[in-house]
Amino acid sequence: MITLAAAAATPPKQPVLLVFEPGVIAQFLVVFLMLVFVYVMTQRAKAGAPVPPIRKLPGLEAVDEAIGRATEMGRPVHYTVGLGDVSTSATFAGWAALGYVAKMCAQYDTKLINTNRNYLVMSINEEIIRQAYLEAGRPDAFNPDDVRYLSGSQFAYATGVLGIFQREKPAANFMIGYFYAESLLFAEGGYLSGAIQIAGTTNTTQLAFFMAACDYTLLGEEIFAASAYLSKEPVLVGSVVGQDLGKIFTFCIIIIGTILQNIQGKSNWLSAILKK
User: Fold this and answer.
1) HSE of 87 in the Cβ direction (CA atoms, 13 Å)?
2) Which residues pair with 78 in a beta bridge?
3) Diameter of the chain by CA atoms?
């Protein structure tokens, strides 16, 4: 009864600036600044003004080489976005790179095999590839049978991909998306088929397998820069640069906060702001 009475007597916390719930204003400011960075860099890129360049990513630099090698050898290209579904951010990154790879394959008249575990992802992949062939001026070269649904089961799907490696011997293998325990199976199967392999995922537990068995590996967030890096589209490049600037700003705040916390304790000005 005393506890209930004390709780009832405690006045409710007042919103900060009559708008924000106490404790979230700092989060709002960080998100707001991130949006400002993205907007400014995007507008600069649109206007042709200089923006900081994206650092060189060897895995993405090798995409054209891998497709060109497959074309010279007369062998297909294999592409998978992994086991993620339409709600997985890494799947979106895989889609961004898929459009570029499909367009290059259309221009070089190289067969592109896309394997899928999720039927919704397969439908989107098919439309992305179809649009890429249309943009390349080769809509007649698109073959829907090369966009293949293998199985909804993880290892049944992996077995199907390995069978394709054995039968059709792709000369280039792209694995960009979200992967689980099948990652090493794919990487080893592609290696045995003699393919140049470019892989990338945000699943840190699988990166070691890609690094051991693939020619090039995109680490974590590098896959989200793939569309901007490959297309050189100014708006996409500006967006990536703006996000990176926001991350740098947040990282600097963490460093400053750590220093102040150790020097002045919990009473420092930065902690007071972040608690609001």
Assistant:
1) 0
2) 113, 173
3) 83
Q: For the chain, how many structural domains are there in total?
A: 2
| Measured distance CA(111)–CA(143) in Å, rounded | 9
Q: Are residues 93 and 193 in the same domain?
A: yes
Each residue's pLDDT tens digit, 200-259 = 999 989 999 999 999 999 988 888 888 788 878 888 888 888 888 888 888 888 888 888
Confidence of residue 261 (pLDDT cuts 50, 70, 90): confident
The conformational region for residue 247 under phi > 0 = left, psi -120 to 50 = alpha, else beta, is: alpha
**Does one domain contain both 74 and 196?**
yes
Q: Are residues 168 and 245 in the same domain?
A: no
Phi-psi domain of 56 (left: phi exceeds 0; alpha: psi -120 through 50; beta: other): beta
Position 121: which residue type? V
Beta-strand (E) ranges in the chain? 77-82, 112-116, 147-149, 172-178, 196-201, 216-219
Residue span of the structural domain in which 186 resides: 58-231
Main-chain dihedrals φ then ψ at residue 48, nearest 5 degrees: 85, 10
Helix axes 183-192, 154-168, angle to 10 degrees: 10
- 187: in domain: yes
Same domain? For 137 and 185 the reply is yes
Question: Which residues neighbour 248 within 8 Å (Cβ) at sequence distance 6 or greater?
Answer: none
Based on the fold, state whether residues 181 and 256 are members of the same structural domain.
no
Distance CA 163, CA 63 (A): 24
- pLDDT tens digits along 26-53: 777 888 888 898 889 888 888 888 888 8
Whether 123 and 92 share a structural domain: yes
pLDDT at 8: 52
CB distance 188 to 93 below 8 Å: no
